[in-house]
Amino acid sequence: MQVGIDKIGFYAPSQYLDLTELAQARGEDPNKYLIGIGQSEQVVIPVTQDVVTMAASAASQVITDDNREKIAMVIFGTESGIDHSKSAAMYLKRLLHLPDQIRAIEVKQACYGATFGVQTAKDYVKANPEKQVLVIGADIARYGLNTPGEVTQGGGAVAMTIAAAPQILALDDATSFRSEDIMDFWRPLYRTEALVDGRYSENIYVDFFQAVFHDYCKTTGRTIADFAALTYHLPFTKMGLKGLRSVLPEASDTQQTRLKANFEASRVYNRRVGNLYTGSLYLSLMSLLANAALATGDRIGLFSYGSGAEGEFYSGTLVQSTPALAAKQQFDAYFKKRTKLSVAEYESCFKRQLPNHDVLLDTKADDARFVLTGIKHDQRQYVDRSHTE
């Protein structure tokens, strides 16, 4: 029995910042961002959006009347949780009108959380093939204005249903994972912006990739020649390129050409959205499916990394060829409707944070279906506009 990704959806707000303009405002050569970091644009998150609203918008694309009653579990991977106690999955369960006979939990390990969700969901569906699991990767990446990490900000959500007889990617059983207590990136409870040792984190990322990839190959007997594409967690797209380059010498010249071309396809959308933390790997997968020339049965490798640090390499095979799967039209429409902010507008939006007291927010400028309308009695207030307008 095959189990894997049956449906996948994406959401990010429609405001964005041009990183060439940011570079000019910061007195930097734009190529430092465009080439050195591998980013050209980044999403700007308004105060009326958080991980719950973004997850709801992404999940509404994969939850329908046909599968709603089949969902037995929601696993919400995030490092941008809104409550120290109550899971973001519980709010999401209500907004999506999911059944009460369900588990709804939030998991955290930096950018790795959604991958734990995928693997846990796969095991559950194997034991309960009539059921499905909703897995979320949603985050808001914040490092602060005029910081080295500013160019790697962003945010958004990816939602996946894991099911038997999947329509998109059938997951292989083999997987390799690794954990070490490492301080390359962290965010204490008292901070709204993350702390990162950038160069150290890049080195750890590559080390973890090589370790889990080679362990996977040793365990399975597969080699790099067995993969049509390798996808990566992309906090910024140059990071994944470094990972790919570290193993390219193991491939033939023809294979290297294909892997490099498919990597470029897999980072098209990440370059323009920015860092999704837990959702970054899966946005990269969507970008690959929409922009690469792939065929049914092609094996795709996925490298997940969460600073602190945990890494995992696993794989799956395409159930259908790319034309039947690609969300290219959806992404083309999304990028076409976006609104570019000036650097000053972006800075103003970044500084606007949700107060820690009762407040009513002006949501007129937010075109999303799901919005955060404010706080009442220390409780976040969410609205599904499709039910109120």
From TrEMBL:
| Single biological process term from Gene Ontology | acetyl-CoA metabolic process
**Where does the record place the Hydroxymethylglutaryl-coenzyme A synthase C-terminal domain?**
257-353
Binding positions ((3S)-3-hydroxy-3-methylglutaryl-CoA): 29, 143, 242, 275
Instruction: Describe the location of the Hydroxymethylglutaryl-coenzyme A synthase N-terminal domain by residue ranges.
Output: 2-163
Q: What residues make up the catalytic site?
A: 79, 111, 233
Signal peptide region = none
Q: Which InterPro entries match?
A: HMG_CoA_synt_C_dom, HMG_CoA_synth_N, HMG_CoA_synthase_prok, Thiolase-like
What keywords are annotated for this sequence in UniProt?
A: Transferase
Could you say which protein family the record assigns here? Belongs to the thiolase-like superfamily. HMG-CoA synthase family.
Could you identify this protein by its name?
Hydroxymethylglutaryl-CoA synthase
Give the source species.
Secundilactobacillus collinoides (Lactobacillus collinoides)
